[in-house]
Specification:
Chain lengths: ~270, ~90, ~170
């Protein structure tokens, strides 16, 4: 492809980098990344992916912008309250970079649609906020052999890593089953510092871009933990668990677990 | 064509010629790099600039990124040429 | 030199907000038991009844997962750091208030009970005015946005008008 005059200016700081260059920028412009969740993690991540010139950016979210989202979901504005998050997100990205083709899905992910949603994308970013979605995305990425950039937040603490099917552990190697609700911190304890998803979401964008370019070392095999209160980054080794119910030697999860059923399952565990 | 080349430089030695007069840094380097990406290692690119700082900045960045700067010449009152051989495996 | 235990955010309510505590012990399980002595309730958040680590929690000795060492019997030496890493899902629970306007025919039905039982939400009645022919209830729902949405749909399916309370008139 030939860059337009506008693209040469827009992507100059990428093109200058030896690790990116014009060839790398072309890779970004022809890549397809799916962002699941248009909230706190999705906003900074999607913003950077859009600005970087990811050619096709899919965004999945069924939710509507609420005033209480704006403390952290920085791509929605006060005027967007009441709109679909994906519509507001699309406007924000298009305002930054018209090169990006934004495809929106106002769907709630479930076992019936997840494979169809992810099948055309090169990299999947999990920017969701609940366990059933996280397990569903992990399992689907395993079955479809898609790189998954995982990020999660709670109050002042974030976790981020990369799962590459066949090349490393998956989410179930780390936590084979979700916690029962009684042990999920109570609602009064929840809440999140607005900046925290900014940090974690930006790291997710960084990893998605590196996977696309094939440069550097991703977080595959490492869990990065960020403590915003103590301002500490800690890194833990992530190993493939041979007893993993999904990608271990004798897996017992052979297909997607239905979303609703799965909720029930863990409510009653 | 200016025709002010040194004796041993012939235009047909260049795999590509890039005239970016009017362009300033860092776009002089950005455009030079994009042009280099279109030729093969060992091939030569001739860059013509009229932005004086570029004759220092572009060669330095080219060298940093593994290319070989063969010569830098003032070719007339306003213009300079930078001759670069693309690095990497031939 | 003592052993440092890094406490994840969800468990800091048990350690008076401390992100790191110091303790002693020769093995992981000894350390967890010592923690329990100082911070009652922490063990059951980390371990099953049989003392094995829960499947949605991981314990690291320095940067290595103890499942790939000797599990809870892994030996620990002075100066080591132990990290407790729970699964976190992110997101913020929401608390939303609604006025429920009951039609006469369903006033006697235990609909709020059914909502609390069928959906993963906490129901909290903040004010109510109920007679034989009208029922107006200010109800707070707390949970994941999707669950709250389902609860609202359920009320509506019973013929109840659900109106969000925009201004915090009920606090």
């Amino acid at each position: 492809m030939e860059f337009t005059e506008e693209q040469i200016k827009r992507y100059a700081r990428h093109i200058i980098l030896p690790e990116v260059g014009g060839e790398g920028q072309e890779k970004l412009l022809s890549s397809k990344i799916l962002l699941i969740g248009a909230g706190g993690l999705g906003a900074p991540c999607g913003y950077y992916l859009g600005a970087a010139g990811i050619g096709t950016l899919g965004i999945v979210d069924f939710d509507i912008v609420d005033l209480s989202n704006l403390q952290r979901q920085i791509w929605h504005g006060t005027k967007d309250v009441g709109r679909y998050k994906v519509d507001s997100a699309k406007d924000s990205i298009e305002r930054i970079n018209p090169d990006v083709k934004v495809i929106t899905y106002k769907d709630k992910i479930d076992s019936a649609n997840i494979k169809e949603l992810i099948k055309d994308y090169d990299v999947i970013v999990d920017a969701t906020d609940n366990f059933p979605a996280r397990y569903l995305i992990n399992d689907a990425c395993h079955f479809m052999n898609k790189p998954l950039v995982y990020g999660s937040i709670f109050r002042f603490e974030g976790q981020v890593t990369v799962f590459l099917p066949d090349k490393g552990p998956c989410y179930r190697c780390l936590f084979s089953t979700p916690p029962p609700p009684g042990l999920v911190p109570s609602c009064q304890e929840a809440g999140v510092l607005g900046v925290l998803p900014g940090v974690i979401g930006a790291i997710q964008a960084n990893e998605a871009i590196k996977i696309t370019l094939g440069v550097g070392n991703t977080l595959n095999g490492r869990l990065l933990i960020y403590d915003a209160l103590d301002m500490k980054f800690t890194e833990m080794k992530l190993r493939k668990d041979k007893c993993c119910p999904l990608c271990g030697e004798n897996p017992n999860i052979l297909d997607l677990i239905d979303y609703e059923e799965f909720c029930e399952l863990y409510h009653h565990e | 064509m200016d025709g002010l080349f040194k004796e041993n430089d012939r235009t047909d030695n260049y795999a590509k010629e890039l005239n970016i007069k009017g362009e300033i840094c860092p776009f002089t380097f950005v455009r030079s790099k994009l042009a280099l990406e279109k030729i093969k290692p060992g091939e030569i690119l001739r860059i013509i600039v009229d932005y004086e700082p570029a004759i220092r900045n572009v060669p330095r960045s080219m060298t940093d990124q593994g290319h070989k700067v063969l010569s830098i010449n003032k070719i007339n009152d306003t213009d300079y040429e930078i001759i670069v051989e693309k690095g990497g495996k031939k | 030199m003592p052993i440092t235990v890094r406490i994840p955010t969800p468990l800091r309510t048990l350690t008076n907000g401390k992100s790191e505590v110091e303790t002693t012990g020769a093995t992981i399980i000894e350390i967890i038991d010592n923690l329990e002595n100082n911070y009652a309730g922490i063990k059951e958040r980390i371990c099953e009844q049989n003392s094995q680590i829960r499947r949605f929690v991981n314990v690291y000795l320095n940067d290595e997962d103890i499942r790939f060492l000797d599990n809870i019997n892994s030996s620990v030496k002075d100066g080591d750091t132990i990290s407790i890493i729970p699964a976190i899902a992110g997101g913020a629970f929401e608390r939303k208030k609604f006025y429920l306007n009951y039609p006469q025919e369903v006033i006697k039905e235990p609909i709020i009970y059914q909502v609390g039982k069928n959906f993963n939400v906490i129901t909290n009645i903040r004010s109510a005015s109920i007679s034989n022919d009208i029922g107006i209830i200010a109800l707070e729902l707390e949970g994941e946005p999707a669950e709250i949405e389902k609860a609202v749909k359920f009320f509506e399916s019973k013929g109840i008008t659900v109106e969000p309370i925009v201004l915090d008139v009920v606090e």
